[in-house]
Amino acid sequence: MSEIEASEAEVIQMRMSTNILTFTALAICLAWIMPQSLWASGSLRFDGIDDYVEIPPQSSLEITKEITFEAWIKWEEEVGISEFQIILNRDFIAYEFSIGEGKGNGNFLWALGDVSTSAPDAYGGWRIAGPIPRNDWVHVAMTYDGNRARAYINGEKVADHNAGGKIRNQANSPVRIGMRMLNAHPSYFHGCIDEVRLWALTRDDDQIKSDMNYRLAGNEPGLVAYWDFEEGQGQTLNDLTANQNDGVLGNSESEDLSDPVWVDEGAPVYSGPLGKPIVQIQPTHPGTLDDLFAVILNEAEIVGASTSINYDWYRDGELAQSGNESSFSAENTSRGQTISCEVLLSEGELESDAGEDSVVIRNTQPSPPVYHILPEDPMPNDPLAVIFDQASVDPDGDPVVYVFEWFESSDGENWTRRPEISGTLPPPLYVSGEPEISGLYTQMGEYWRVEVTA
After folding, report:
1. How far apart are CA 212 and CA 210, in angstroms?
2. Does 69 lie in the same domain as 19?
3. CA angle 306, 310, 315 (to 5 degrees)
4. First to last CA, the chain
5. Which of 329, 326, 325 has the alpha carbon at shortest distance from 315?
6. Domain containing 169: what range?
7. Which of 161, 253, 257, 319 gets the most CB atoms within 10 Å of its CB?
8. In whole angstroms, what separates CA 442 from the centre of its chain?
9. Residue 104, SS3?
10. CA 108 → CA 85, 101, 193, 238, distances in Å?
11. Do residue 59 and residue 203 come from a single domain?
12. pTM for the full predicted model
């Protein structure tokens, strides 16, 4: 049996006929809010000749027991005569992290002053972690907990060695990004640096890998300095922690030739994890002739990144369609089936939790009937009858059953349903009701209204 809400009503008054045809329409407006950009787009580019950032001496940078260093780098070929491309250095070799040229052979290198270790030596105390490709964004990290020294490349642990001793501390020593001043042979970095983090604790393997693609708040426990390189202009590289370890570009607070350059290119770092998509299948109450569409309603996608969206469509629990199609054809549905869609977002190795929605396929609504009441000018005690000018059409080909609802009123405003001559609702207890009512029911001055549901 097909079902449709009553869409027309015929009202008539005894001795005075009034035909009223009422149409009711429901409009639903879905507002799509464009997601804000979550892509971290800025970095500093160092020329490899004389560019650097200097952070003045601060007690928070005097890390002596445990340390974690993290940075995103995109390094290019050497342009000077240095053996090293310095990522970050604290003077007097307290702690240093670099890419090795020459004897370093393109490896990620680290050095902790006064710390003994079994890690292989590249040159003069620089320890080899692993090779770094040129001209690609690479995440590097190093940790020391007082017993072990570990190094990571793109979240994967590439070195783990015995180590011991207290990290050297020279009071009033600045930290520099992109440069080390040692005697008459300074070393510089050539390429881009982004998202540099210093911790006075040891981050474990899972923390290194899980957070490398996400921006920090700056108030994480143990974080002593965090530079996200998102300023885009000016002479200051801001520390997002409360320690105010802000850096100055080049030799002074005025522009000079030693300033690295702000660039729009940034590491693949986001302001938060891929969001779980909130999914809605539209229409929300589909019929058998309706194509289905899965819509993501929240700010889940990463704008500026190549976010992939996968839609898995299920029919009564069985996978029916999988891929990047957000629509599901009505040709694949039947009345009574439960259709669900599971949506998954991915960006590289990042993957969201799945969002899903489901609907039950109903009959496609038949067209409303067109009808009127006869006689058009009834007298008291005249019987009334519903006459169809246009019958309903059911797109599914089901037999159309009409349910008649009769209402009586003394003033045309306050209505009472007469159950003895009306159909019974809701389904499945349909009783068709009476298309005709006896003159025994009609009295002078009464209004009668009929609603017909197909």
Report:
1. 6
2. no
3. 170
4. 9
5. 329
6. 43-263
7. 161
8. 63
9. helix
10. 10, 10, 14, 25
11. yes
12. 0.58
